[in-house]
Amino acid sequence: MTDVVDAVHAVDGAQSQARAELESLVRIPSISADPDRRDDVRASAQATAELLAAHGLESVRLAGVDGSHPYVIGEWMHAARGAPTVLLYAHHDVQPPGIVDNWDSDPFEPCERDGRLYGRGSADDKAGGVAHAHAVSAWLNTSGAVPCNVRVLIEGEEEIGSPTLGAFLETHLDELRADVLVLADAGNWKVGVPGLTYSLRGLAAADIELRALDGPVHSGMAGGAVPDPVVALAQVLASLVDANGDVAIDGVWDDVRPPTASERAPIPGLDDDPDGFGRAMGLRPGVRLVGDPDATLHERLWFRPSLTVIGIDAHPIKGSSNQVIARAAARVSLRLASGQAPDRVVEQLRAHVERHTPWGLELHVRALEGAPAWQTDPTGPAFDAARRALRAGFGTDPVLMGVGGSIPFVGPFADAFGGIPALLLGPADPHSRIHGENESLHLGDWHKLIVSEVHLLDALASTAR
Q1: Which one, of 210, 206, 209, lies nearest residue 349 by Cα?
Q2: In order of start, what are the domains of the chain with their CATH numbers?
């Protein structure tokens, strides 16, 4: 126990260093979805590798396969005989900033306000990588050893659906072999209350393009006879959801596994406070939540499919003129429930769009990367260790929770090693606005997360002993 206390004290003494390291990483615009940012993603990987090496990880290197953004791998494999090997996962790539003018500060210049650090990637997920580095070095700097063997993997393309993950795992399987996965890319129940995630929705996506013309034409000369592809696209997109905002693609609900009675049981503090959830998300006054009103809020967020139009291409308002444009396109993203296969959902989307495209417009549908939903039974020694560690770090019991988002890495990695336990925790909270403007990290909870990880490494080793 003395060793744990010393390691926690080391974390306490390194808060300023950890923040400076995180701010340095946030300043790198490692947007994996932007081909023009490939050099920035590589710079982020290199900076992450230097961070891991500075904190005592060995054999730190950049890795990848053909066409991938760079992953970062490191390890410390000198624990006592019989100690488990724990893989610590995070990712260093980030989402695009969105509409920069909507940020209250530069998205790539970290800024603290009211105990939160604002910047793209602050909570999702550069804080996770820094947390792993400090949890390891806290042990090395105080005891000279980590209680268990540690491997660290920091991915560079999680935000684009991990398109080369299968090939990467096949190539680097022996370098990543572990008994437990600890993933710091999830979040907490609320500020001050940790979460332990056991359920993730899956992901499917496609680009839909409608073309009417070879090129734009004068709307006064052609309007009223030539179809407008933007209006056609609007009709198609509107057909994808029903009056409640639920997915209305033909056949898409056929494979959904209904939640069990226990999964449907209302959760105090969430289902009984939809207005509070709306405020946390920044919902404008008078805007109503969508989804089946007979389903609990958490069921809509964790266990049911949803659809979002995440981008539209047409002529921007700036520079527009009186013309019928030639084409319009949208990127549609679906979160998937347990039981749904991404490829099948995209084909259902394709068939639905074909049936609902008006006026004979030329249609093109391009499937993007996807991943199935993931769920695990949050019981057993590893989960008991995680509960104890989070309680020690936060001073309160963690909440077992689902997350409506997707982390493609979890299922394939756990399966690659025979279904090893996957412990999902992380630095975000409902106010973090990850993927949105003004993304932020609660600095106090981030410190508690690092302390929890120090306890977790010891708890997992103790479980093995």
Answers
A1: 206
A2: 2-200+373-464 (3.40.630.10), 202-254+305-367 (3.30.70.360), 257-299 (no CATH)
